[in-house]
Write a structure and sequence with these properties.
Oligomer: single chain
Structural class: mainly alpha
Number of strands: 4
Order of helices and strands: HHHHEEHHEEH
Helix content: 55-70%
Distance between the termini: 67 Å
Largest sheet: 2 strands, antiparallel
Radius of gyration: 29 Å
Shape: elongated
Amino acid sequence: MSGWVRLAARLLLAGVWLVAGGTKVGDLQGSVRAVHAYDLLPYELSKVVGAALPFVEIAVGVLLVAGFATRVAATASAALLVVFIGGISAAWARGLNIDCGCFGGGGQLAAGESPSYFWEIARDVALLAVAVHLVWRPVSRLAVDNLFGTEEDDDGEDDPWEEDSSDGEHEEARPAGDGGWHSDAAGQGRGAAGQGGGPGR
């Protein structure tokens, strides 16, 4: 997978977290209600998790957009997705009739509405695969990480945000008096040898 494709994967994951966190941050009570609806945590702990979750999602999304600490952000993404998959699976197994609350809302569904557990799990599994790949190969294009050289890129492609590592020195071939060709570097080497190797007077 090239660095450009990993950039797309990084931005996809970032967009999911920014939308998910952004829709919850304006309704923290709704986020708390969504967490508590899974009936896995005491209400007091659900309040803490529900209030903190939107800010965690936004923070992870911002890191991924910037491409800063990409492996850390991807690891956090994978951990969150594993928790979400486990929570939705537990709700499905226990026959709960709730909205996952992944993008706001959450809580008990209205009468006559059916949960979409299968598709929600399938979506999160696909996103988990993206996150795991970024944990394994975090280097992507247009990432702040590249400016600091925190990850080594092995794609052999030039990154527009990566400094040129060449020293700018090139050897230039020129004709020599003996009919052959010599490089400037070789000529400079012989000149230095001639200056330092003559007999002293």
